[in-house]
Specification:
By secondary structure, this protein is mostly helical. Helix content is about 65%, strand content about 0%.
């Protein structure tokens, strides 16, 4: 591993200085393999590489990775929150509009029924007599006022004031004209 930065030949092999040292390394490796300690070293090296590989993900420690994950989750939550709020408000508005539409349809049905009633000439005549107090030619109209319709003038109690009748400008003119 110490030879990583050294020069290589065009064929992909090692430089001449590196090849001269190679037999020495191979003797050491074979000696350590015979002892069995080389396998243990190899195992330790692989497990260390795995652990360091997990820590080296994006070149951050676990705390930094957790912070990045938290930021990503928050960003996703905020990204989803606004459209979700818009969806829910539009859904409530749609339900309100549907209720309003049902009310208007009921009102239209009522008005159409009233229109059908008023298409009858007898109904029109009855409405004219009742509302406008019309009479047919040759009829004599009578207005009957019953005593219950207009209360009789009662004497006032000594502590009450009389309420003047008429509009304010009529009362003013009567007061000025005498």
């Amino acid at each position: 591993m110490a030879e990583r930065g050294r020069e290589r030949s065009r064929r992909g092999g090692r430089a001449e200085g590196a090849s001269a040292r190679r037999p020495e390394r191979s003797r050491r490796d074979t000696a350590s393999r015979r002892d069995g300690s080389g396998k243990a070293r190899l195992r330790r090296g692989l497990s260390a590489k795995r652990a360091s590989g997990a820590a080296k993900v994006l070149g951050m420690s676990t705390t930094r990775r957790a912070a990045v994950v938290a930021i990503v989750v928050c960003a996703l939550a905020f990204t989803i929150a606004v459209p979700l709020r818009t969806y829910l408000t539009q859904r409530s508005e749609v339900s309100e509009q549907q209720q309003r539409r049902a009310q208007l349809q009921a009102e239209v049905a009522e008005l159409e029924a009233r229109k059908n009633q008023l298409s009858d000439p007898a109904q029109i005549e009855a409405e004219a007599r009742r509302r406008l107090r019309y009479v047919m030619p040759g009829e004599t109209p009578y207005m009957v006022q019953l005593p219950e319709d207009k209360p009789a003038s009662q004497p006032q109690a000594p502590g009450q004031q009389s309420i003047p009748l008429g509009a304010w400008y009529e009362r003013l003119w009567r007061g000025v004209a005498g």
